[in-house]
Amino acid sequence: MSDLLRASAIGTARVRLDGPDKVRGRAPYAYEHPVESPLHLHPLCSSIARGRVTSIDATAARALDGVVHVLTHHDAHRLADTGDGELAILQDDRIGFRGQYLGAVLADTPETARHAADLVTVTTEAAPHDADFRHDHPEVRAPEGGADDVEDGDVEAALAAAEIVVDQRYSTPLEHNNPMEPHTTIARWDGEELTLWTSTQGVHPARQTLAPMLGIEPEQLRIISPHVGGGFGSKGVPHADMMLTALAARAVPGRAVKYAVSRQHMFALTGYRPATTQHFRIGARRDGSITAFALDAVSSSSRTKEFPEQAIKPSRQMYAGEHRRITQRVLPLDIAVPSWMRAPGEAPGMVGLEIAMDELALACGLDPIELRVRNEPELDPDTGLPFNQRRLIDCLREGAARFGWAERDPRPRARREGGWLIGTGVASATYPASRQPGSQARIRHTAGTFEVSIGAADLGTGTWTALTQVAADALEVDPEQIALRIGDTALPNATVAGGSTGLASWSAAVMAAAQTFRREHGSAPADGVDAIGEAAENPAEEEYAMHSYGAHFAQVSIQEDTGEIRLDRMLGMFSAGRIINPRTARSQFLGGMTMGAGMALHEKGELDPRFGHVVNHDLAEYHVPVNADIRHLEAHWLDEEDPQAGPLGARGIGEIGIVGAAAAIANAAHHATGVRVRDLPVFGSDFLPR
Ligand code: MOS
Q1: Is the domain of 570 the same as that of 644?
Q2: Is residue 571 located within the same domain as residue 648?
Q3: CB of 578 within 8 A of CB of 11?
Q4: Fewest Cβ atoms nearer than 10 Å: which of 38, 509, 514, 577?
Q5: How far is ligand 1, taken at its centre, from the CA of residue 654, in Å?
Q6: Which atom of ligand 1 lies closest to the CA of 459?
Q7: Does residue 362 lie in a domain region?
Q8: How far away, in angstroms, is 105 Cα from ligand 1 center?
Q9: In angstroms, how far is CA 123 from the centroid of its own chain?
């Protein structure tokens, strides 16, 4: 077909290429990969928060018909590197948190494995533990990797001189990723070679972490993960379940071992978002312009492995303010290991900042959008660099027009219908834009079909479809001529599907490969020819502060007598550069907003400090949003391209949808009732007049 007539595949709302296979049950997820006579794993987990294992009696379990092996720290393979406290399991008798893996039973059926695990007697010696998160705990300290603090000017003097001051502490609770597909792995050792069929956001990054620990070369570890049933960050780094399966399989060479983490165990073993407190002190002139900005953030962490939630990140660049002091601290506790959850840092950090901005707007008698307009920085306050394409105000104004913001009565508790108080709220969204270097892609041509291979991941985000569109345009062929292969370390190296960097990073590799391919083989290539390309760094990331922006608008109704809260409608307006596939992109934005609704309304891991574990560890008691919670959601975006993002013109969209969404809802709840909720979730708050 003539290039002049060929329509661009990028920008078209293609349906998911993997959709038909998924709805028919034909898309192989990790646990479903067919293997011969597999063994099933059931874990042994600690019932105490801290201490040591004194003995393990597996006599009764071993005697059970169908039990093949009971693995403990006595006989587990010794790892070559035990520096990662989360992954270095079964290496000694120490217990660092309740739920920690202490061993595993392998049996010929899952039922036998589970029953046998119940027959194992683990004796422990408990040590005093601390699982109580408090921002004023004496052991609150800077993160091990160093604090990313900011100190500009004299914030205390500026606060003292400010005409208006908002001085409030906000908190966000533990939140759990809860993808539909649990973390699952099949492991099989063949000699010194290990194969893992697993559910991961990055096959190559997982291999890079696991192979050195297992004492093998990366080439001796193959990881296969073509389809992933959600991850939200919890499959962005390997967790101990993968290691446990690999260690267990090592004890039964040649046999495949299958393990699906139970929903309950996911609350302790596959990462979660830690709790944060955020103390904001914002000083402003009466006209709303910020003169002093102080934020002290603390997040909970684990003594087993540190994970500092970067809740200060968005506050570094969002708004103007000459005098600034921003600090980040952690409190290591005897609890499970936190990790990435969709927009780590930004999602909780924008709860505090965007509620504080709402409070400041009211204190100044300003519309909250106008307050943000008045505090729009010229240059990035964090780096001093110009912004690549900062269109926050466009998002706020365009979103306001679509939402009907102009009709809003600014007074809280002003609108009542039946027994319901109705309010609306707004909050900004932001997420950094970045492209990771190092991904490689290979293109091979056979009989009019272009096989495009890269170890990328599709965790439900639409990679299969969007990357096919990118490849088609790069080769100037129809998407039907592209045969994409992803999710396997046997394919060229790919960076993680994380930090909203996936598609942009892999696309750079595919585009580089396509360029080489076309240069070397022309537009009528012979059969069997191929080319390789690698993603380079984006030099613009040195010259610009690269972020995406957005605005969330929410309307809630709150039952005056009972406090029941309903999210009536929500509208998100985003600026994310070029949109590759409007259909899958809309899903990404709506999914993020839905997760933000859960964060606002009801998600909270209830950690019982007496025992050190999350007690509401299932979907009956840990509430994620369902259809009944989501009445009307809309996502829109500015029609734009970002030249600084590279030839694709696109920034990532995986995470920005959640950022700010919860604050918009909390602000709407205040507008409805006049009651300010500063500790998420909103549900269960006292909205009764006092
Ligand atoms: Mo995302 S939390 O960076 O996988």
Answers
A1: yes
A2: yes
A3: yes
A4: 38
A5: 8
A6: 4
A7: yes
A8: 32
A9: 36
Whether the CB of 143 sits within 6 Å of ligand 1: no
CATH number, position 386:
3.30.365.10
| 569 and 464, same domain (yes or no) | no
Residues 500 and 416 in one domain: no
Residue 2 has pLDDT above 80, yes or no: no
CA distance 145 to 148: 9
Q: Is 342 in the pocket of ligand 1 (CB under 6 A)?
A: yes
| Boundary-marking domain end, from 269, 296, 313 | 269
Q: Which atom of ligand 1 is nearest to the CA of 344?
A: 2
Statement to judge: residues 455 and 380 lie in one domain: no
How many degrees, rounded to 5, is the angle at CA 654 between CA 652 and CA 655?
Answer: 105
Q: How many residues does the chain have?
A: 690
Sheet holding 121-126, edge to edge: 94-95, 51-57, 121-126
* 338 Cα: distance to centroid of ligand 1 (angstroms): 13
- Separation of 445 CA from ligand 1 center, angstroms? 34
- Nearest ligand 1 atom to alpha carbon 499: 3
Known active-site residue 603: no
**Closest protein CA for atom 4 of ligand 1:** 233
pLDDT tens digits along 24-33: 999 999 999 9
Q: Are 531 and 588 found together in one domain?
A: no
Atom number of ligand 1 nearest to Cα 500: 3
Inside any domain, residue 172: no
The predicted-structure confidence for 603-612, as pLDDT tens digits, reads as follows 999 999 999 9
- Where are the extended beta strands (E) located within 247-334? 257-260, 276-284, 290-302, 323-333
What is the per-residue pLDDT for 689?
A: 61
Q: Measured from the CB, is residue 233 less than 6 Å from ligand 1?
A: yes
Helical spans, DSSP H, in 338-433 = 346-364, 368-374, 392-403
Asked if pLDDT for residue 1 goes beyond 50, the answer is: no
- Print the domain residue range for 533: 19-29+435-537
Residue 654 counted as domain residue: yes
Distance CA 645, CA 642 (A): 5
- Residue 341 beta carbon below 6 angstroms from any ligand 1 atom: yes
Do 331 and 400 share a structural domain? yes
Q: Are strands 221-224 and 101-107 parallel, antiparallel or unpaired?
A: unpaired
Segment 502-518, tens digit of pLDDT: 999 999 999 999 999 99
Alpha-carbon distance of 159 to 150, in angstroms, equals 16
Q: Strands (DSSP E) along 601-657, which ranges? A: 607-608, 613-614, 633-637
Q: Of 306, 283, 330, which Cα lies nearest the Cα of 134?
A: 330
Question: Which of these three, 509, 537, 565, is where a domain ends?
Answer: 537
What is the 3-state secondary structure of 534-593? ECCCCCHHHHCECEEEEEEEEEEEEECCCCCEEEEEEEEEEECECCCCHHHHHHHHHHHH
% of residues, the chain, pLDDT over 70: 99
What's the domain count of the chain?
3
